């Protein structure tokens, strides 16, 4: 049998047909929340909608080929600004779209003239404040592994995925090892990593990050839950355990590190300049302040304007410092050409990112939902000054003994006439410590398992059980003031937010409704003259299933933009490769897949690249890609099958047999053979 014949037979036998698009190799991979991510959807949010699932999931690609689509000819589609079926707005094509400049406020270090100096420089003069700050959870949000501080070693067994984790100290390292007990045969070692970083203060839990190689970080599947005093699976791994394949992006580190930067704009590679949340995270870069205190700059009258002091900010500006991490609405969208990671204290959050809520508010408590919940409170709405810092001192926390009294005094500072509607005997019967928060800000379950949090909607709580989001599609409304943005930008952000909401909902009908809203809004924005690679990429993601040729036009147009951010480039490349594969144009899918593998650590990218290279007859390159896929997901039998066939095509029978055996071990006992008179799948072309 020729190499070409073996490939055709392999494709037929394993169900990998570009017309039917069953992609047998990844038949048991669940859908994901974002394009190609092998992470599990956040707890309580469900899987991605069918229209935006990646092509590695069985049945995710169109069931019939596009007429006339060959393996190399590019598709013909309408231009990005004339695509059907949208009816465009009557607004003029030259509608004003210029963004207002970022509002820098009155502090000098909110401008580009200031640089970061590190928390150590602040501690030289503010030692007492620094020492108090070390007692806060923010000061312990991210650190390097320290064997003396890590919890005791142990074993964790996941009965669902049949995996076992051993947490051991060895050679001055804290190692997390993963083995799999397959349905048949001996245990298989899947991974063995030394932990590098610890995420979390330990007040509730700590999670470990490992160096997965090539500059990529990955999350360990096991977490230490301090409240339960033992190890369990990390959040999200209970639903679908991907092992050490869950990537850690710069976005993930943003709210745990004092300052983190994407290397060359690639959010998959991060440089951590300050481990934990530090002084400059809330006060801004300190170079001007240091220079002034050292006498290098003149001192004027009034407040020191060389460093942001939240006391002298408006309520909106002050809350923005907290909201950059403690606000999580139903959806969000970045303002054109800007990213949240560029935000600085003293600026307005809405100059960078717009957060949206539902018209019917979500009253459940989320770990990062504090600001939204506070804004739903009558106490907040009835006050012009109540804000985060009213109750929270970022520099220190009250002791456990003083905690109840400390926060009760905060309540009584406003509620002087009628401290509580309950008579004192009834009140003390409910809370012997006379704790206002126990009734009006109860500890509630959150969207992360084992992690309760204080509910920040101040009021009368009928139940502390989290209330789920409304099942029906709701209207998205901005949670902040966006009146400073042009109408065109407001519509653009709303369209992107509906796309984000469509990916987060667990209801397929709601997801589809949001997707249609996103499509119509974004097409309308393009029709009104806005040429934006973020919008083009979003439309490519939307059209990749219903109109792959149109998705290709949008993706390629976005990829030609010099203003395209790397994270958006990743999404565009995914949509482009997915669309080419939908059209059976495997040759054209190779280049975007190769770029994807350099921008993120996803086993599915490498797998599809291996199959496409195999189709092109480049066995050596196909083997390289297949090996990388199996390294990231060593638990996937279909990856092992691909390796086995590639080694067989290359004439390396021993290696082929080894991987075929591993695939069989991972799958379990072989299924009974079909009767002799059953139709042959390869011969029938099914």
What can you see in these coordinates?
The chain has about 675 residues and is an alpha+beta fold. Helix 19 (about 585-600) runs antiparallel to helix 20. Strands 1, 2, 3, 4, 5, 6, 7, 8 and 9 form a nine-stranded antiparallel β-sheet that branches. A three-stranded antiparallel β-sheet has the order 12-13-16. The protein has a two-stranded antiparallel sheet with strand order 10-11. It has helices spanning about 5-15, 120-125, 125-135, 250-255, 280-285, 285-295, 315-325, 370-375, 380, 390, 405-410, 425-430, 435-440, 485-505, 510-525, 535-545, 550-560, 565-580, 585-600, 605-615, 620-630, 635-650, 655-665, 680-685, and strands at about 140-145, 155-160, 165-170, 175-180, 190-200, 205-215, 215-225, 230-235, 245-250, 260-265, 265-275, 330-335, 355-360, 445, 455, 475-480. It has 24 helices and 16 strands.
């Amino acid at each position: 049998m020729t190499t070409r014949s073996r490939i055709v037979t392999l494709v037929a036998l394993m169900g990998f047909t570009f017309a039917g698009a069953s992609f047998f190799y990844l038949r048991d991979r669940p859908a994901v929340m974002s394009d190609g991510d092998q992470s599990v959807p956040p707890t309580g949010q469900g899987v991605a909608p069918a229209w935006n699932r990646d092509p590695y999931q069985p049945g995710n690609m169109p069931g019939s080929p596009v007429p006339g689509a060959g393996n190399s000819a590019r598709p013909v589609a309408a231009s990005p600004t004339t695509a059907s079926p949208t009816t465009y707005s009557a607004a003029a094509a030259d509608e004003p779209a210029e963004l207002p400049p970022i509002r820098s406020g009155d502090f000098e270090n909110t401008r580009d003239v200031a640089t970061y100096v590190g928390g150590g420089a602040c501690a030289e003069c503010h030692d007492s404040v620094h020492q108090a700050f070390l007692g806060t959870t923010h000061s312990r949000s991210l650190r390097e592994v320290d064997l003396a501080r890590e919890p005791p070693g142990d074993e964790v067994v996941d009965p669902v995925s049949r995996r076992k984790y051993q947490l051991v100290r060895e050679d001055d390292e804290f190692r997390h090892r993963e083995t799999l007990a397959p349905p048949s045969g001996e245990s298989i070692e899947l991974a063995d990593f030394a932990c590098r970083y610890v995420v979390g203060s330990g007040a509730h839990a700590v999670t470990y990050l490992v160096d997965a190689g090539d500059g990529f970080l990955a999350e360990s599947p096991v977490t230490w839950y301090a409240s339960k005093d033992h190890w369990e699976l990390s959040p999200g791994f209970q639903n679908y355990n991907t092992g050490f394949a869950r990537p850690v992006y710069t976005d993930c580190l943003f709210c745990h590190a004092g300052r983190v930067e994407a290397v060359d704009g690639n959010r998959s590679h991060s440089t951590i300049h300050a481990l934990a949340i530090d002084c400059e995270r809330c006060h801004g870069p300190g170079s001007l302040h240091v220079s002034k205190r050292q006498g290098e700059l003149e001192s004027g009258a009034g407040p020191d304007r060389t460093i942001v002091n939240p006391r002298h900010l408006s309520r909106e500006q002050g809350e923005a410092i907290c909201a950059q991490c403690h606000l999580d609405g139903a959806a969000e969208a970045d303002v054109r050409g800007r990213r949240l990671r560029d935000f600085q204290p003293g600026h307005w959050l809405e100059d960078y990112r717009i957060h949206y809520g539902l018209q019917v508010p979500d009253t459940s408590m989320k770990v990062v939902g504090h600001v939204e919940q506070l804004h739903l409170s009558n106490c907040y709405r009835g006050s012009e000054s109540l804000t985060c810092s009213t109750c929270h001192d970022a520099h220190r926390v009250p002791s456990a003994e003083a905690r109840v009294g400390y926060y009760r005094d905060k309540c009584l500072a406003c509620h002087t006439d009628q401290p509580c509607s309950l008579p004192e005997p009834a009140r003390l019967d409910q809370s012997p410590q006379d704790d206002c928060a126990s009734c009006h800000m109860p500890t509630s379950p959150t969207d992360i398992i084992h992690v309760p949090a204080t509910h920040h909607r101040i009021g009368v709580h009928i139940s502390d059980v989290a209330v789920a989001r409304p099942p029906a599609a709701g209207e998205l409304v901005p949670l902040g003031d966006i009146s400073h943005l042009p109408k065109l930008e407001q519509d653009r952000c709303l369209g992107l937010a509906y796309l984000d909401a469509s990916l987060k909902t667990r209801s397929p009908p709601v997801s589809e409704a949001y997707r249609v809203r996103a499509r119509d809004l974004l097409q309308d924005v393009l029709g009104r003259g806005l040429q934006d690679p973020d919008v083009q990429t979003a439309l490519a993601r939307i059209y990749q299933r219903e109109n792959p040729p149109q998705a290709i036009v949008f993706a390629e147009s976005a990829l030609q933009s010099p203003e395209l951010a790397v994270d958006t480039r990743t999404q565009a490349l995914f949509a482009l490769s997915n669309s080419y594969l939908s059209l059976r144009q495997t040759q054209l899918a190779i280049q975007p897949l190769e770029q994807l593998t350099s921008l993120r650590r996803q086993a599915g990218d490498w797998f599809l690249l291996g199959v496409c290279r195999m189709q092109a007859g480049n066995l050596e390159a196909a083997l390289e890609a297949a090996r990388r896929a199996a390294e990231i997901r060593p638990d996937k039998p279909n990856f092992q099958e691909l390796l086995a066939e590639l080694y067989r095509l290359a004439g390396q029978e021993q290696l082929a047999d080894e991987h075929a055996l591993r695939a069989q071990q991972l799958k379990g006992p072989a299924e009974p053979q079909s009767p002799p008179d059953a139709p042959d799948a390869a011969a029938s072309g099914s």
